[in-house]
Design brief:
The structure holds 2 protein chains of 2 kinds. Chain A is an alpha/beta fold. Chain A contains 6 helices and 6 strands. The longest helix of chain A has 24 residues, at about 165-190. Classes of the chains: A alpha/beta, B mainly alpha. The interface between A and B is medium-sized, with 25 and 32 residues. Chain A: It comes from Maudiozyma saulgeensis.
Chain lengths: ~210, ~700
């Protein structure tokens, strides 16, 4: 409030259709859950004021994208200028897990980020409230994937029961803010390489 | 004929006297349109604009007379035709002119609504005559601009008399008007022509002239009923508004080129001639009467005819289709049912049979199922219209799954794309009502179809829905094939259109880095279905189907053409190669072979149809020229510009948030009709120009 120029953090949520991107966004922003979301067309947009590490305030602009492959061609309109990309899969859907890597590549192709190696991604395994019998993606596989994608943070979440959603988005906000400042620094000083921020390697496993 | 020929009349008649340029008029039109926007946003209860702002823009706006000039000048290059030129006794002419002044002053419902919301003063029943007004259920006998233009020629005489009658009713002002005839005649004469061209005359019942009952009242009722002062608006009478208009003319008419909109300050005097109750009652009676009249008109066209006059049906349908007629009319308009009623039964039988066989073939082999497509549809169906109980029933899920999957398999070039699940539902829901008794049509959204459909009926319903969806999507296949070029083009066209119509808004978007695709993609992909409630969407589709039906071909279906349709099920086809014109973006469509096919078909139709229709070649060309995507862009433009003032005060975040969730929840059919009329006007103004700046 005091600073005139507020930080705006742009966050993109990607993942297969039906993994719960919209639900996650609404759970985080409005703390609500509904079974009645329509399939996202194009992208939905919500914002939330975030307080990062209890001293930095920023506005997070969340773009919740459509999951169907057909809509990928318009990604560029939404990806540009993103500070963090959230990759979501459904722990009850193997295919959605397998597609994570292609979602990431897709993003990097379209977003035109300055340094793809350090761009912050966060991986979310959603729907962990589901019966164990339905879960088909093991935590181990997820941790391996997160490691292979550059040790990106991994959270197991449930939009339905709100497990880990706030925690995950705190991390998302932190990553986005760092990325945002990196970009600003890089802009100010061309001689500096982009500072390579080591992200916290906190692959939170859920307690259940 | 129609608009164009009338414009020719005007141009001819006024050539020597008038020299104002249409280019300057265009900007005037823009500001006029903006004034509607203000009013409409206030009518939807979402506007927080200060009232003085609204009234300023109202009084400061150019007249609709100017607007008409522009509109017609735009078309004045068409063939000369003045066969409908009328001669009038001069004194009658003066009265007539006054009435047109009323029209232009009161003009659109939007304006009267604006008056309601800003000045809380009076509105004019003369608004009823606005040619661009939006017919509501209560005044649905008023035709669309287009339809009235087309009819105008046949009914001019009677129209004339009615207007004359109107002024006898309010004879106190008639005298005024003749006194000042000289000053007003000059431009009113032109207006006379302009308005007569678009006023729907033949069904202008006299009772409507004498009280405040007209379409807008339903809107004010819905949106402003918590404002007690607003009630005053319904107590206004013809004479009160006419008086104020006369006084406006007195003060301003002589010095200005065009008749002015009434200065709202002069309209404080309220002439209470009838008690509220009386007026309410009369209005209800009128509403009922007009609904009955409308139903009769549809009956007349559809029932007991060997060949249904599709053109007449289209004109009538533009303004909304009565619920009991909607299923059959939609099927006719979209070209599923042939106009030849003797062929209808056999066609339905064959098509339903084809669907049934298509299902059997597709579902016979479990292993050949396209899993990703099936899965995508499966997860989308529970998310389709989740707020409507109808779409929660298992039987409905199953039906939609079959329809969508079969469609996807048969159209591999596009396949199933999210949003098509939305587009199928208006058909499904509308065709369901066929199986309900008329008194229960309104319960369609809450009743399980299984409770009243037999298995056969269910399959017929599915087949009809499938074929109409197919026909519908044929027009816009480009929207759903890889890369969705149709949508990208529409979004681009929308931005170009807004740049032309509302540069302030366009620049504001630029400054805020708002890209059109960020909000308009969904508008195109789901045809604004996500922005409106289902009942208003269905009403909107009445007009869409009437305005843009691409194919009159199967309505004149020869066995050949039918067999072409058969192919659809027999072999999956790629519409890309078969129907290039169906990808018609505005320009492509103008030159596409398809539209010329349509044109000649329409020609055949008008030649074969009863006397009078043969003179409407121009308008039938217009019909065939309009593609669904094109008209939709104009609707989107009207929709966006409606919020322009509010949007211009917002930053990026505000704009996107607003447009993601526009305040349309309380929109009534009247609001939709207003939007469609605005779109129609923009289209009239810009359609021919688009080829210059739309690529």
């Amino acid at each position: 409030m005091s600073t005139r120029k507020k930080n705006i953090l742009k966050v993109i949520i990607l993942g297969d259709s039906g993994v719960g991107k919209t639900s996650l966004m609404h759970r985080y922003v409005n703390d609500k859950y509904s079974q009645q979301y329509k399939a996202t067309i194009g992208a939905d947009f919500l914002t939330k004021e975030v307080n990062i590490d209890s001293d930095k305030i920023a506005t997070m602009q969340v773009w919740d994208t459509a999951g169907q492959e057909r809509f990928q061609s318009l990604g560029v309109a939404f990806y540009r200028g993103a500070d963090c990309c959230v990759l979501v899969y459904d722990v009850t859907n193997t295919k959605s897990f397998q597609n994570i890597k292609s979602w990431r590549d897709e993003f990097l192709v379209h977003a035109n980020v300055s340094s793809p190696e350090t761009f912050p991604f966060v991986l979310l395994g959603n729907k962990i409230d589901a019966d164990d019998s339905k879960k088909v993606v093991s935590n181990k596989a997820a941790q391996d994937l997160a490691a292979s994608l550059g040790n990106i943070p991994l959270f197991f979440t449930s939009a339905k029961t709100a497990i880990n959603v706030d925690t995950a988005f705190q991390e998302i906000a932190r990553s986005a803010l760092q990325q945002n400042q990196n970009d600003a620094d890089a802009f100010e000083d061309d001689f500096n390489d982009a500072i390579n921020i080591q992200l916290d390697n906190d692959t939170n496993s859920c307690s259940c | 004929m129609g608009v164009r020929s009338t414009s020719q009349e005007i141009t001819r008649e006024t050539k020597e006297r008038r020299s104002h340029s249409s280019s300057s008029s265009t900007s005037l039109v823009t500001s006029l349109m903006k004034s509607w926007r203000i009013s409409s946003s206030s009518s939807s209860g979402s506007s927080s604009k200060p009232s003085n702002k609204s009234s300023q823009s109202f009084s400061g706006n150019p007249t609709t007379g100017t607007y008409n000039d522009t509109m017609y000048n735009n078309h004045s290059h068409t063939n000369d035709n003045n066969t409908n030129q009328q001669h009038r006794p001069s004194n009658e002419h003066g009265l007539y002119s006054l009435s047109t002044a009323n029209n232009s002053d009161g003009n659109f419902d939007a304006m009267s609504k604006q008056q309601n919301s800003t000045n809380k003063s009076i509105t004019s029943p003369a608004n009823t005559y606005s040619p661009l007004r939006y017919s509501s259920p209560s005044s649905s006998q008023i035709e669309s601009p287009r339809a009235s233009v087309l009819r105008q020629q046949h009914y001019k005489h009677s129209h004339h008399n009615q207007l004359y009658y109107q002024h006898n009713n309010s004879s106190n002002i008639s005298e005024h008007s003749t006194t000042h005839k000289k000053s007003s005649d000059k431009y009113f004469e032109d207006l006379d022509e302009d308005w007569s061209a678009v006023i729907d005359n033949y069904n202008m019942p006299i009772p409507m002239l004498t009280n405040g009952g007209n379409g807008k009242s339903s809107v004010s009722h819905n949106t402003q009923s918590n404002d007690p002062k607003n009630n005053l608006s319904r107590t206004s009478t013809a004479s009160s508004i006419a008086t104020s208009i006369t006084s406006t003319t007195l003060t301003q008419g002589q010095s200005l080129q065009y008749p002015q909109l009434p200065n709202l300050n002069t309209m404080d005097a309220i002439d209470l001639q009838k008690s509220q109750e009386e007026i309410e009652n009369e209005r209800e009676v009128q509403e009922l009467n007009s609904i009955m009249q409308r139903i009769t008109k549809f009956d007349n066209i559809i029932k007991g005819k060997h060949i249904i006059n599709l053109q007449e049906l289209r004109q009538l349908s533009w303004n909304g289709i009565p619920k009991p007629h909607r299923p059959i009319v939609w099927k006719l308009l979209i070209g599923y049912l042939p106009a030849n009623t003797k062929r209808q039964e056999s066609l339905l039988k064959r098509k339903r049979q084809e669907y049934s066989e298509g299902l059997k073939h597709t579902f016979s082999d479990e292993h050949s199922r396209d899993i990703p497509t099936w899965h995508q549809i499966e997860i989308d169906i529970p998310r389709t219209n989740p707020h409507i109980p109808l779409y929660q029933f298992k039987s409905v899920h199953d039906s939609l799954q079959r329809i969508l999957y079969l469609w996807a398999i048969r159209h591999p070039a596009s396949g199933y794309v999210q949003g098509i699940n939305d587009l199928v539902t208006p058909f499904f829901q509308t065709f369901l009502t066929e199986y309900l008794p008329p008194s229960k049509i309104d319960t369609v959204e809450v009743t399980d179809p299984n409770s009243y459909l037999t298995e056969d009926q269910k399959e017929h319903l599915e087949a009809d829905t499938f074929w109409c969806l197919t026909k519908f999507l044929e027009q816009i296949t480009d929207n759903y094939i890889h890369g969705q070029p149709g949508i990208l083009k529409q979004v681009k066209n929308l931005s170009q259109l807004v740049k032309r119509i509302d540069l302030d808004l366009y620049k504001h978007f630029e400054n805020e880095h708002v890209e059109f695709i960020q909000f308009a993609f969904r508008w195109m992909n789901c045809l604004l279905m996500r922005e409106f409630q289902m009942d208003t969407v269905i009403r909107m589709w009445d007009t869409y189907l009437a305005e843009t039906s691409p194919e009159t071909t199967s309505s004149f279906a020869t066995p050949n053409q039918l067999s072409t349709n058969n192919d659809v099920l027999l072999s999956p086809h790629t519409p890309v190669s078969r129907k290039p014109a169906m990808f018609g973006t505005p320009n492509a469509d103008l030159t596409s072979p398809m539209s010329s096919t349509n044109r000649s078909n329409m020609g055949v139709q008008s030649g074969a149809s009863p006397a009078g229709v043969s003179s409407s070649d121009d308008s039938s060309t217009r019909f065939s020229n309009t593609s669904l995507n094109e008209f939709h862009v104009f609707v989107c433009a009207a929709f966006l510009i409606k919020w322009s003032d509010a949007l211009c005060d917002m930053d990026f975040q505000g704009i996107i948030t607003f447009l993601q969730n526009p305040p349309t929840k309380d929109w009534t059919e009247t609001d939709i009709e207003m939007l469609l009329s605005e779109a129609y006007i923009w289209q009239s103004l810009y359609k021919d120009a688009t080829s210059h700046w739309l690529k």
